[in-house]
Amino acid sequence: MKWRNIAIASLLIVTLLGGCKGADNELKPEPTKEPTAEDAIGAYLADWQKQDFAGMYGLLTPEARTGMTEQQFAERYGKIYQGIRADKLAVTNVSPAPSATPEASPSATAGPVVQKFQYDVRMETVAGPVEFKHEGTARKTQDGEAMMWRIDWDPSMIFPDMKAGDKVRVQTVRSDRGEIVDRTGEGLAVNGRAPQLGIVPGKLGEAADAVKAQVAKKLGITVQDIDRKLGASWVKPELFVPIGIIDEADMDEFQNVPGISFQEKKMRMYPLGEAAAHLTGYVGEINAEELEKRKDKGYKTGDTIGKAGLEQVLEDRLRGTDGVIVTIDDSAGQRKSVLAEKPAVPGESFQLSIDGNLQKTIYQEVKADAASAAALQPKTGEVLALVSSPSYDPNAFVRGLASGQYAAWNDDPLHPFLNRFSKGYAPGSSFKIVTAAIGLDAKTLDPNEAVQISGLKWTKDGSWGNYYVKRVHAVNPVDLSKALTYSDNIYFAQAALKLGKDKFASEAANFGIGEAIPLVYPMAKSQLSNKGILSDIQLADSGYGQGQVTMTSLHVALAFSAIVNQGNIAYPRLTLDEDPAAPKVWKAGAMTQETADILKADLVKAVASPEGVGHGASVAGAAIAGKTGTAELKATKGGEGQENGWFVGFDANDPKLLLSVMVENVKGRGGSGYVTPKVKHIFEQTMKQAK
What we know:
By secondary structure, the chain is α+β, with helices and mostly antiparallel strands. The protein folds into 3 domains: 37-163, NTF2-like, domain 1 (Nuclear Transport Factor 2, Chain: A), CATH 3.10.450; 180-351, Penicillin-binding protein 2a (Domain 2); 357-404 and 418-690, DD-peptidase/beta-lactamase superfamily (Beta-lactamase, 3-Layer(aba) Sandwich), CATH 3.40.710.10. Strands 1, 2, 3, 4 and 5 form a 5-stranded antiparallel sheet that branches. Helix 5 packs across helix 6. It is elongated.
């Protein structure tokens, strides 16, 4: 018998016969060749390769077809192949089985009635390639009125390990999401486990109402919330119905409570909670809008996705790649064999430059206020803290929000969901170091010049109409050191006017004003103006951080880093695994070293002086160099409006920490004087922890 690697269809061979028979010439066909075992095997394997399951069924022995209709046969193959996403099916190397001896018919003239054959199968699946060798049997059997070669089929011809009652199962192996840790390895957003309280409805008994009330109280939800979960279409009396996550310490309360059970649940955890909520963000189940945007990236209903903060910003890198395993399970659900497996690939993890202890310390100081804060290691540019308050607990979104909790946060007039550290604010007098640096380097400002300024109000000339610049302290004369100590708005307004709007704007750009901060976490761009500085009034106001100037607390801190770094602004870093060859300087020569030294000395005096507005930040044993700021947000000059207080500073003797803190609504609470004690406490706590 001749074997080929492709299926063989039966051929009708017609031969044209010549010659005369009697008076007529007739063409008589050659008798049709009797189909062979090879023909049946080839046709069956060809149909299999095309996934023509109806054609395959027609080539089975009557015994193999018994108890299984063509539809059932086709559906079984179809469901299996569809489930595993079978593709590129190839049946090759078809040949007689090595040990096969054709089984002869009882009739000596009838020839063999059984032929065993072997073949190789390869297909692509959702879990990778599946390959196997197998044997089959072709049998000459009575099919209708004729003796025909047919295939003795059994479930092993789907996959060799399969038997009747077995099932092919496709399981997703969930990948681990990458974790986010601080500079010491302490968790910020990590994978953990927590006890999940559930109810087995059939075991509640007569105590059902009391048990549900007890659970609702503990979880901060309503009984109606529980009833909705118990009323889901999939729920059966004997099944565990998850209700909510509780603390391990609370599990004892539910021991021996009828119907209550626990399962361990994998979940995302945020150890710093509110203190780092806006930085880490949180994860949640993907919604329809997100799914539509990301369906081409393999997301599906029920998947977890970053909803805010770094969880959202780093989503594509934190998210791992799920694995898939295709198995054969027996009728009892026990695994018999693995057909193919694609391992899960965990997401990328990140170690931040953030100091978790400092993050908590800052948050504790400002959590009662609407505030923004940033902390830097000014020499390296490492971001040590990014704080926004008030805040919310990101764990609540993962564990399940208590009834009314979201509404309470959402309706809070202080807007705890607002990420303030990523927003731009008028920097007020903290911006004066920029104006001073530009003036010093442009030689339009002499630090030793005693400028004569009388009174608390000043106007350039009659062209300003009723507009004026106001200061708090009537000091006269004023040099740069006094101007910084007393935070003299008039001095810096005049300094900006001496520069002129073009020079002021071009030199401010050296501080990164108008640029995006090169950080993985997106921040609002700073600005000097909306559409350019259009008047001397706007220029004067810009000189002391008002007008239309806006900066994030981080950008203000970066500007101050130039004072520590001989005039260079450090390149900000939020992760510790960045390319070591990356630039160490963001803005080289934002100011000269001479100017940086002058400003450092003056800022130390500004805090050390008992008369200085920043004296509240003075720390014993340290040389805090800093600048306060009070930004007024008013619709009209002299009108009522909000005031935001700033303090930005560092220890000139040991500049490892540069703090930039802004608190909203300080009017009537001491202005920037409300902020300085908070900064002092932060410095003191940090120094204490360092010992």
